[in-house]
Design brief:
single chain, 345 residues, alpha/beta
Length: 345
Protein backbone atom coordinates (compact mmCIF):
# COMPACT_ATOMS: atom_id res chain seq x y z
CA UNK A 1 0.00 0.00 0.00
CA UNK A 2 1.26 3.46 -0.87
CA UNK A 3 2.31 5.76 1.93
CA UNK A 4 0.15 8.88 2.15
CA UNK A 5 1.64 12.32 2.74
CA UNK A 6 0.07 15.74 3.28
CA UNK A 7 1.98 18.89 2.33
CA UNK A 8 0.92 22.35 3.45
CA UNK A 9 2.36 25.04 1.22
CA UNK A 10 2.08 22.65 -1.74
CA UNK A 11 2.10 25.46 -4.32
CA UNK A 12 5.36 26.99 -3.08
CA UNK A 13 8.95 26.25 -4.03
CA UNK A 14 9.58 23.59 -1.39
CA UNK A 15 6.10 22.08 -1.53
CA UNK A 16 6.22 21.52 -5.28
CA UNK A 17 9.68 19.92 -5.22
CA UNK A 18 8.69 17.74 -2.26
CA UNK A 19 5.52 16.59 -4.03
CA UNK A 20 7.54 15.56 -7.08
CA UNK A 21 10.05 13.72 -4.92
CA UNK A 22 7.46 11.81 -2.90
CA UNK A 23 5.45 10.81 -5.97
CA UNK A 24 8.66 9.53 -7.58
CA UNK A 25 9.19 7.45 -4.45
CA UNK A 26 5.77 5.82 -4.62
CA UNK A 27 3.76 8.07 -2.30
CA UNK A 28 0.18 9.21 -2.62
CA UNK A 29 0.57 12.96 -2.14
CA UNK A 30 -2.10 15.36 -0.89
CA UNK A 31 -1.70 19.11 -0.87
CA UNK A 32 -3.51 21.80 1.10
CA UNK A 33 -4.22 24.95 -0.88
CA UNK A 34 -6.18 28.09 -0.21
CA UNK A 35 -9.03 29.13 -2.48
CA UNK A 36 -8.00 32.20 -4.48
CA UNK A 37 -9.79 34.18 -7.15
CA UNK A 38 -6.69 33.65 -9.32
CA UNK A 39 -4.96 30.31 -9.72
CA UNK A 40 -1.55 30.07 -8.07
CA UNK A 41 -0.67 26.52 -9.05
CA UNK A 42 2.05 27.26 -11.64
CA UNK A 43 4.66 25.30 -9.63
CA UNK A 44 2.48 22.18 -9.61
CA UNK A 45 0.48 22.45 -12.84
CA UNK A 46 2.61 19.70 -14.37
CA UNK A 47 1.67 17.38 -11.50
CA UNK A 48 -2.01 18.18 -11.95
CA UNK A 49 -1.74 17.47 -15.68
CA UNK A 50 0.28 14.27 -15.16
CA UNK A 51 -2.28 13.02 -12.67
CA UNK A 52 -4.91 12.97 -15.40
CA UNK A 53 -3.03 10.29 -17.32
CA UNK A 54 -1.03 8.35 -14.70
CA UNK A 55 -2.07 6.38 -11.64
CA UNK A 56 -3.83 8.62 -9.16
CA UNK A 57 -1.07 9.82 -6.86
CA UNK A 58 -1.71 13.56 -6.42
CA UNK A 59 -4.67 15.27 -4.78
CA UNK A 60 -5.41 18.87 -3.86
CA UNK A 61 -7.71 19.97 -1.04
CA UNK A 62 -9.05 23.43 -0.40
CA UNK A 63 -8.37 24.57 3.14
CA UNK A 64 -6.29 26.83 5.35
CA UNK A 65 -3.86 26.09 8.15
CA UNK A 66 -5.65 28.61 10.37
CA UNK A 67 -9.03 26.93 9.84
CA UNK A 68 -9.45 24.06 12.30
CA UNK A 69 -12.47 22.56 10.57
CA UNK A 70 -10.69 22.14 7.25
CA UNK A 71 -7.67 20.58 8.97
CA UNK A 72 -9.86 18.12 10.85
CA UNK A 73 -11.82 17.31 7.71
CA UNK A 74 -8.65 16.35 5.84
CA UNK A 75 -6.34 14.91 8.50
CA UNK A 76 -8.95 12.97 10.48
CA UNK A 77 -10.28 11.30 7.34
CA UNK A 78 -7.02 10.48 5.60
CA UNK A 79 -4.80 9.44 8.53
CA UNK A 80 -1.62 10.43 6.71
CA UNK A 81 1.62 8.57 7.30
CA UNK A 82 3.57 11.82 7.01
CA UNK A 83 2.62 15.48 7.26
CA UNK A 84 4.99 18.18 6.03
CA UNK A 85 4.14 21.64 7.34
CA UNK A 86 5.73 24.10 4.89
CA UNK A 87 3.04 26.77 4.77
CA UNK A 88 3.75 30.17 6.34
CA UNK A 89 3.94 33.90 5.77
CA UNK A 90 7.61 33.43 4.96
CA UNK A 91 8.86 36.81 3.78
CA UNK A 92 10.95 38.60 6.41
CA UNK A 93 10.51 42.10 5.01
CA UNK A 94 6.75 41.63 4.79
CA UNK A 95 6.61 40.44 8.40
CA UNK A 96 7.67 43.92 9.57
CA UNK A 97 4.80 45.41 7.56
CA UNK A 98 2.14 42.92 8.69
CA UNK A 99 3.41 41.54 12.02
CA UNK A 100 -0.03 40.56 13.35
CA UNK A 101 -0.93 38.60 10.24
CA UNK A 102 2.50 36.94 10.15
CA UNK A 103 2.22 35.93 13.79
CA UNK A 104 -1.32 34.63 13.47
CA UNK A 105 -0.65 32.51 10.38
CA UNK A 106 2.68 31.10 11.53
CA UNK A 107 1.81 30.56 15.18
CA UNK A 108 -1.84 29.51 15.00
CA UNK A 109 -1.30 27.48 11.85
CA UNK A 110 1.29 25.33 13.59
CA UNK A 111 -0.64 24.83 16.82
CA UNK A 112 -3.86 23.98 14.96
CA UNK A 113 -2.12 21.31 12.86
CA UNK A 114 -0.43 19.79 15.91
CA UNK A 115 -3.70 19.77 17.86
CA UNK A 116 -5.44 18.07 14.95
CA UNK A 117 -2.72 15.42 14.71
CA UNK A 118 -2.79 14.85 18.47
CA UNK A 119 -6.56 14.43 18.58
CA UNK A 120 -7.29 12.66 15.29
CA UNK A 121 -4.13 11.14 13.81
CA UNK A 122 -1.44 10.64 16.49
CA UNK A 123 0.39 8.04 14.38
CA UNK A 124 1.18 10.61 11.68
CA UNK A 125 4.80 11.70 11.49
CA UNK A 126 5.05 15.49 11.47
CA UNK A 127 7.74 17.68 9.92
CA UNK A 128 7.87 21.39 10.75
CA UNK A 129 9.80 23.81 8.55
CA UNK A 130 11.95 25.89 10.86
CA UNK A 131 14.36 28.54 9.63
CA UNK A 132 17.89 29.83 10.10
CA UNK A 133 16.34 33.28 10.65
CA UNK A 134 15.66 32.09 14.22
CA UNK A 135 19.39 32.56 14.90
CA UNK A 136 19.04 36.22 13.96
CA UNK A 137 21.78 38.40 15.40
CA UNK A 138 24.00 35.37 15.74
CA UNK A 139 25.52 34.47 19.10
CA UNK A 140 27.95 32.01 17.47
CA UNK A 141 29.75 32.49 14.13
CA UNK A 142 28.59 29.06 12.92
CA UNK A 143 25.13 27.78 13.82
CA UNK A 144 24.15 24.21 14.67
CA UNK A 145 21.33 22.47 16.55
CA UNK A 146 22.69 23.66 19.91
CA UNK A 147 23.21 27.32 19.03
CA UNK A 148 21.00 29.73 20.96
CA UNK A 149 18.32 31.53 19.00
CA UNK A 150 18.20 35.32 18.80
CA UNK A 151 15.44 36.19 16.28
CA UNK A 152 15.29 39.70 14.83
CA UNK A 153 11.99 39.87 12.95
CA UNK A 154 8.31 39.09 13.49
CA UNK A 155 8.76 36.25 10.99
CA UNK A 156 11.66 34.70 12.88
CA UNK A 157 9.92 35.08 16.24
CA UNK A 158 6.76 33.43 14.94
CA UNK A 159 8.77 30.57 13.45
CA UNK A 160 10.59 30.10 16.76
CA UNK A 161 7.21 29.52 18.41
CA UNK A 162 6.37 26.96 15.73
CA UNK A 163 9.74 25.30 16.30
CA UNK A 164 9.37 25.11 20.07
CA UNK A 165 5.75 23.99 20.08
CA UNK A 166 6.63 21.14 17.71
CA UNK A 167 9.21 19.93 20.22
CA UNK A 168 6.77 20.47 23.07
CA UNK A 169 4.10 18.26 21.45
CA UNK A 170 6.72 15.58 20.92
CA UNK A 171 7.69 15.65 24.58
CA UNK A 172 4.16 16.08 25.92
CA UNK A 173 2.17 13.71 23.73
CA UNK A 174 4.80 11.35 22.33
CA UNK A 175 4.19 12.47 18.75
CA UNK A 176 6.74 11.86 16.04
CA UNK A 177 7.25 15.58 15.43
CA UNK A 178 10.50 17.21 14.41
CA UNK A 179 11.93 20.35 12.83
CA UNK A 180 14.34 21.01 10.03
CA UNK A 181 16.27 24.24 10.60
CA UNK A 182 16.76 25.08 6.95
CA UNK A 183 19.18 27.76 5.84
CA UNK A 184 18.42 29.74 2.69
CA UNK A 185 17.57 27.53 -0.26
CA UNK A 186 16.82 28.76 -3.74
CA UNK A 187 15.69 27.61 -7.18
CA UNK A 188 13.91 28.91 -10.27
CA UNK A 189 10.67 28.38 -8.30
CA UNK A 190 11.67 30.86 -5.59
CA UNK A 191 9.08 33.60 -5.03
CA UNK A 192 9.74 36.76 -7.04
CA UNK A 193 9.94 38.98 -3.94
CA UNK A 194 12.93 37.12 -2.47
CA UNK A 195 16.26 38.79 -3.18
CA UNK A 196 17.81 35.91 -5.15
CA UNK A 197 14.91 35.60 -7.57
CA UNK A 198 14.59 39.38 -7.73
CA UNK A 199 18.23 39.64 -8.80
CA UNK A 200 17.95 36.82 -11.35
CA UNK A 201 14.88 38.38 -12.98
CA UNK A 202 16.24 41.94 -12.89
CA UNK A 203 19.55 41.01 -14.50
CA UNK A 204 17.71 39.05 -17.19
CA UNK A 205 15.51 42.10 -17.85
CA UNK A 206 18.57 44.36 -18.11
CA UNK A 207 20.21 41.93 -20.53
CA UNK A 208 17.03 41.92 -22.65
CA UNK A 209 16.75 45.72 -22.54
CA UNK A 210 13.48 45.66 -20.59
CA UNK A 211 14.77 47.76 -17.67
CA UNK A 212 17.86 49.90 -17.01
CA UNK A 213 18.50 49.15 -13.34
CA UNK A 214 17.10 47.73 -10.10
CA UNK A 215 17.25 48.46 -6.38
CA UNK A 216 18.34 46.28 -3.46
CA UNK A 217 19.01 46.64 0.27
CA UNK A 218 21.95 45.31 2.26
CA UNK A 219 24.64 44.26 -0.22
CA UNK A 220 26.88 42.87 2.49
CA UNK A 221 24.38 40.50 4.13
CA UNK A 222 25.78 36.96 3.95
CA UNK A 223 23.67 33.85 3.61
CA UNK A 224 24.24 30.11 3.38
CA UNK A 225 22.54 29.35 0.04
CA UNK A 226 21.66 25.84 -1.13
CA UNK A 227 19.24 24.32 -3.64
CA UNK A 228 15.64 23.63 -2.61
CA UNK A 229 15.55 20.39 -4.62
CA UNK A 230 18.20 18.91 -2.33
CA UNK A 231 16.76 20.32 0.90
CA UNK A 232 13.41 18.60 0.49
CA UNK A 233 15.23 15.27 0.44
CA UNK A 234 16.56 16.09 3.91
CA UNK A 235 12.99 16.77 5.09
CA UNK A 236 11.93 13.32 3.94
CA UNK A 237 14.94 11.66 5.55
CA UNK A 238 14.08 13.20 8.92
CA UNK A 239 10.75 11.35 8.95
CA UNK A 240 12.41 8.03 8.07
CA UNK A 241 14.53 8.00 11.25
CA UNK A 242 13.82 5.81 14.28
CA UNK A 243 13.30 8.86 16.50
CA UNK A 244 12.36 12.47 15.79
CA UNK A 245 15.13 15.04 16.17
CA UNK A 246 16.03 18.51 14.92
CA UNK A 247 18.51 18.96 12.10
CA UNK A 248 20.34 21.95 10.66
CA UNK A 249 20.26 21.80 6.86
CA UNK A 250 22.75 23.94 4.96
CA UNK A 251 25.91 23.97 2.85
CA UNK A 252 28.40 25.20 5.44
CA UNK A 253 29.40 28.05 3.13
CA UNK A 254 28.04 31.58 2.82
CA UNK A 255 28.18 34.38 0.30
CA UNK A 256 27.09 38.00 0.23
CA UNK A 257 24.21 39.51 -1.71
CA UNK A 258 26.90 41.52 -3.51
CA UNK A 259 28.53 38.27 -4.69
CA UNK A 260 25.17 36.91 -5.88
CA UNK A 261 24.61 40.05 -7.94
CA UNK A 262 28.12 40.02 -9.42
CA UNK A 263 27.89 36.37 -10.42
CA UNK A 264 24.49 36.88 -12.04
CA UNK A 265 25.73 39.81 -14.10
CA UNK A 266 28.76 37.72 -15.08
CA UNK A 267 26.41 35.14 -16.59
CA UNK A 268 24.75 37.94 -18.55
CA UNK A 269 28.13 39.06 -19.91
CA UNK A 270 28.00 42.30 -17.95
CA UNK A 271 30.93 43.40 -15.77
CA UNK A 272 29.85 45.42 -12.77
CA UNK A 273 31.95 47.72 -10.60
CA UNK A 274 30.92 49.47 -7.39
CA UNK A 275 31.19 53.17 -6.64
CA UNK A 276 30.34 55.11 -3.47
CA UNK A 277 29.69 53.96 0.06
CA UNK A 278 26.74 52.93 2.22
CA UNK A 279 23.33 54.01 0.97
CA UNK A 280 24.99 55.94 -1.87
CA UNK A 281 26.81 52.94 -3.31
CA UNK A 282 25.92 52.09 -6.89
CA UNK A 283 26.66 49.28 -9.32
CA UNK A 284 28.02 50.54 -12.63
CA UNK A 285 28.11 48.73 -15.97
CA UNK A 286 31.78 49.00 -16.94
CA UNK A 287 30.99 48.80 -20.64
CA UNK A 288 28.88 51.97 -20.79
CA UNK A 289 29.28 53.55 -17.33
CA UNK A 290 25.52 53.37 -16.67
CA UNK A 291 24.02 52.70 -13.23
CA UNK A 292 22.51 49.23 -13.08
CA UNK A 293 22.16 48.66 -9.32
CA UNK A 294 21.10 51.16 -6.65
CA UNK A 295 20.67 50.92 -2.88
CA UNK A 296 17.27 51.71 -1.38
CA UNK A 297 16.68 52.08 2.36
CA UNK A 298 13.21 50.60 1.88
CA UNK A 299 14.74 47.15 1.46
CA UNK A 300 16.72 47.30 4.70
CA UNK A 301 15.18 45.58 7.70
CA UNK A 302 14.52 47.55 10.91
CA UNK A 303 16.72 44.92 12.59
CA UNK A 304 19.29 43.46 10.20
CA UNK A 305 20.62 39.92 10.21
CA UNK A 306 24.09 40.33 8.73
CA UNK A 307 25.42 36.80 8.57
CA UNK A 308 24.20 33.20 8.76
CA UNK A 309 26.37 30.11 8.35
CA UNK A 310 25.33 26.51 9.00
CA UNK A 311 27.10 23.59 10.60
CA UNK A 312 25.28 20.61 9.02
CA UNK A 313 27.50 17.88 10.49
CA UNK A 314 24.63 16.16 12.34
CA UNK A 315 22.63 15.81 9.11
CA UNK A 316 25.72 14.53 7.30
CA UNK A 317 26.31 11.90 10.00
CA UNK A 318 22.79 10.73 10.86
CA UNK A 319 20.86 11.37 7.65
CA UNK A 320 23.78 10.74 5.28
CA UNK A 321 22.72 13.99 3.63
CA UNK A 322 25.06 16.58 2.16
CA UNK A 323 24.46 19.55 -0.13
CA UNK A 324 26.04 18.98 -3.53
CA UNK A 325 24.83 21.87 -5.72
CA UNK A 326 27.07 24.93 -5.34
CA UNK A 327 26.10 28.59 -5.39
CA UNK A 328 27.37 29.17 -8.94
CA UNK A 329 25.16 26.39 -10.31
CA UNK A 330 22.14 27.75 -8.42
CA UNK A 331 22.71 31.25 -9.81
CA UNK A 332 23.14 29.88 -13.34
CA UNK A 333 19.93 27.85 -13.13
CA UNK A 334 17.90 30.78 -11.78
CA UNK A 335 19.23 33.33 -14.25
CA UNK A 336 18.82 31.10 -17.30
CA UNK A 337 15.29 30.16 -16.27
CA UNK A 338 14.18 33.78 -15.96
CA UNK A 339 16.05 34.83 -19.10
CA UNK A 340 14.29 32.12 -21.11
CA UNK A 341 10.86 32.99 -19.68
CA UNK A 342 11.26 36.73 -20.25
CA UNK A 343 12.71 36.37 -23.75
CA UNK A 344 9.56 34.50 -24.83
CA UNK A 345 7.07 36.92 -23.28
Amino acid sequence: MKKKALITGITGQDGSYLAEYLIANGYEVHGLRRKNSQENTFNIDHLIDDNKIINKAFFLHYGDITDTSSLINIIAKKKFDEIYHLSAQSHVHTSFQVPEYTTYVNVMGSIKILETIKNFSPESKFYNASTSEMYGDVLNPIQNENTKFNPQSPYAISKLYSHLVTINYRNSYNLFSCCGILFNHESPRRGKTFVTRKVARAVAKIKLGLIDSFKVGNLNAKRDWGHAKEYIEAMHLMLQQDKPEEYVIGTGKNYSVRYFIEQTFKLAGIEIEWEGEGINEKGINKANNKIIVEIDKYFFRPAEVDILLSDPKKAEKNLKWIAKINIEKIIEEMYENDFNILSKS
